[in-house]
Amino acid sequence: MKIICIGRNYGEHAKELGNEIPEDPVIFMKPDTAILKKGSDFYIPEFSDDVHYELEVVLKISKGGKYIQKDNAGKHYEEIGLGIDFTARDLQSKLKNKGLPWELAKGFDGSAVLSDFVSKESYDLQNLNFSLTKNNEQVQNGNTKDMIFSFDDIIAFASQYFTLRVGDLIFTGTPKGVGKVSENDLLEAFLEEQKLFSLKIQ
């Protein structure tokens, strides 16, 4: 199982980090060891003093494929969820400044938080609200209508390079409002009005 992640997929988030709006999806990967075990707290790693939350809608691939056409992409996933792409922002900045890959800042153990998955049939995927609160204060509020690349765009693009397999996960990008976590913070994620997970920071 692989975790494909899309960077800079919401224009306002790209702007808040000083990045250009991409012409094609920006892709990076996380190993399966990045998944935080369900029910576990997130522990800030010793190598970073600036870990940021990034809430994202996550797709679970239910039908494998290669060179998937955009018109058929919707047939390749049946469930969606929410996830946090934890990012060691200080480490990422150092790596980017040296022209090096981001994996150390993005793929460390526990850096991929996942909710339970729900059927996509219950939602309007082109107009889907999702949000994150930190200590009961909303910090991120996104809607999929603001994505630069849609779910189907992402699947079609990624499958040109990677064969998608059942169980693969795709983190589809984060809206503006990313920020630092500190010890004892409580993060809660909502899909529309439904809370999908809560997470304590240690």
TrEMBL record:
Xref: InterPro entries: Fumarylacetoacetase-like_C, Fumarylacetoacetase_C_sf
Q: Recorded GO terms, molecular function?
A: acetylpyruvate hydrolase activity; isomerase activity; metal ion binding
Q: Which Pfam families match?
A: FAA_hydrolase (PF01557)
Q: Is the keyword Metal-binding in the record?
A: yes
Q: Which residues form the Fumarylacetoacetase-like C-terminal domain?
A: 2-187
Keywords from the named record: Isomerase, Metal-binding
Q: Which SUPFAM superfamilies match?
A: FAH (SSF56529)
Note the PANTHER family from the entry.
ACYLPYRUVASE (PTHR11820), ACYLPYRUVASE FAHD1, MITOCHONDRIAL (PTHR11820:SF7)
How is this protein named in the record? 2-hydroxyhepta-2,4-diene-1,7-dioate isomerase
Q: Which organism is it from?
A: Epilithonimonas arachidiradicis
